[in-house]
Structure formats: C-alpha cells, structure tokens
C-alpha cells in the first residue's frame, strides 16, 4: 500500500519499486490524500478542472505500473492538516486493504524542499500514527468497527526520501516503467526531457554504491509484534 500526498508523488519516490513488486506478482494499491488542485501555473486552469486532470493522470500512471486500485481522499492540495478526520480516513483504508507493507513519505523536514513539501511531511507523520497505534488498536475509531473494519497490524513501513536510508532496491529493470508512469503526469511536466534526465541521474547515484544501474532508497521501519 502506497500512501502519498499528491498525484505523481509515488512515481517520483517509488515508481520503480512498485513496478518491480507488481511484476513479481505482489498486489499494490495507492492512497492519494489530496486532489492536487494547486499544481499549475497556467492562468487558464481552474482548481476544479486540475483536480479532474490529475486524477486521470494518476490512474493512467497506476495502470502503467500494474497498480489496479487507487483511492483519492480529495483533501485540498497544500492544506493537509494532521486531523482526526485524516487519521480516520487513512486508518480506514489500512484496515480495509490490510497491507503487509506501507510505503509513505518522510515526515521530517529536510534541506530538499521538493521532498519536504508540508503536505508530504504531514501525510508521512499521519501514516506512521495510523500504523501505530490507530489501525492496530480495536478501540481507536469505534465507528470503523461499526463498519466491520477490524484492527490490522502492518508489518513494515518504507519511508521514501530519507536522508540516511538503510534499504536500497535495484530498479534497473523497471526504470523505463517508472519514467513512463511519470510521463503520464502531463500537467506537471512542462519539460519532461529535463525531468527524465534528473530522475535517471538520481537513480544512478542511489544505485552506484551497490553496483546497480538504477535504484530507489528507503528507511524501513519494522513493526514489532
């Protein structure tokens, strides 16, 4: 289960890993917190139309990566707050989907402003709170119990864009799929050739210490019990 703030966040951070896992026969789903309705410099674009465009782009990217299910929570872009509603909505999907592994965003501020978008940090922090203890504890969100959503223990959390990662995944064979999925986000790619060059360079840098042509890195949290 991949939980991110915006459409395209997953493709940038873990698209190669997702493609690798789906090729191995693993089932992956996406949970996208916001509707991405602020990400445009086009003076003719409206938030309402942009939200529809970005949802369609995300669905096409998911199809490219072999992801069959994507859920949009529809929170406004740039306005994600760590509220009970957000934690309940994420917990609901965790309990409903019952994933062994969750991939999410770094909850810590870093010097990389792209990675440290406030929505990213809030989403990452909320996900960790939902994994432990909210999705696990039976008495958290009793309204979810009433819906038949029983507690669930996630086994591992993979945190993207961590300054000191401890897990490197070889995405050499799925790098082209990662880029193809990123290219689906046309509204966000004014110069895709430049984006592609940067993504390839970064993946090569992450893979080089392990002898991989391309890689994605994570800090993995193992959940006890």
What is the spatial order of strands in the main beta sheet?
A: 4-5-7-6
Name the structural class.
alpha/beta
Percent of residues in beta strands: 15-25%
Distance between the termini: 20 Å
Spatial extent as radius of gyration: 17 Å
State the CATH architecture. Answer: 3-Layer(aba) Sandwich
CATH class category: Alpha Beta
The whole-number mean of residue pLDDT values reads 96
The tally of structural domains comes to: 1
pLDDT < 50 stretches: none
Short description:
The protein is α/β, with parallel strands linked by helices. It has helices at about 10-25, 45-65, 85-95, 120-135, 140-145, 175-185, 190-205; strands at about 1-5, 30-35, 70-75, 100-105, 155-160, 165-170, 215-220. The protein has seven helices and seven strands.
Question: What this model shows, in words?
Answer:
Strands 4-5-7-6 form a four-stranded mixed sheet. The protein has a three-stranded parallel sheet with strand order 1-2-3, with helices on both faces. 44% of the residues are buried. Helix 3 packs across helix 4. The model has no long low-confidence stretch (mean pLDDT 96). The protein is an alpha/beta fold and 225 residues long. Helices cover 42% and strands 16% of the residues. The protein has helices at 9-23, 47-65, 84-97, 118-134, 142-146, 175-183, 192-207, and strands at residues 2-4, 29-34, 69-75, 101-104, 156-160, 167-170, 215-222.
């Amino acid at each position: 289960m991949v939980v991110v703030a915006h459409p395209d966040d997953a493709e940038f951070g873990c698209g190669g890993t997702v493609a690798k896992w789906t090729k191995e026969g693993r089932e992956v789903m996406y949970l996208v917190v916001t509707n991405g309705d602020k990400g445009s410099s086009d003076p003719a674009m409206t938030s309402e139309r942009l939200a529809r465009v970005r949802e369609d782009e995300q669905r096409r990217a998911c199809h490219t990566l072999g992801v069959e299910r994507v859920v949009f929570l529809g929170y406004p872009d740039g306005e994600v707050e760590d509220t009970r509603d957000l934690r309940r909505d994420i917990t609901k999907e965790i309990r409903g989907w019952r994933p062994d592994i969750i991939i999410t965003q770094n909850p810590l501020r870093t010097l990389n402003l792209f990675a440290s978008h406030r929505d990213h940090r809030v989403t990452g922090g909320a996900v960790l709170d939902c994994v432990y203890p909210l999705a696990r504890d039976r008495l958290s969100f009793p309204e979810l119990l009433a819906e038949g959503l029983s507690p669930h223990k996630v086994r591992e959390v993979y945190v993207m864009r961590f300054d000191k990662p401890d897990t490197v995944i070889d995405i050499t064979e799925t790098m082209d799929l990662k880029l193809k999925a990123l290219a689906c986000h046309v509204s966000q790619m004014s110069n895709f050739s430049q984006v592609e060059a940067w993504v390839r360079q970064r993946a090569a840098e992450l893979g080089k210490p392990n002898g991989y042509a391309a890689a994605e890195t994570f800090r993995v949290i193992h959940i006890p019990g």
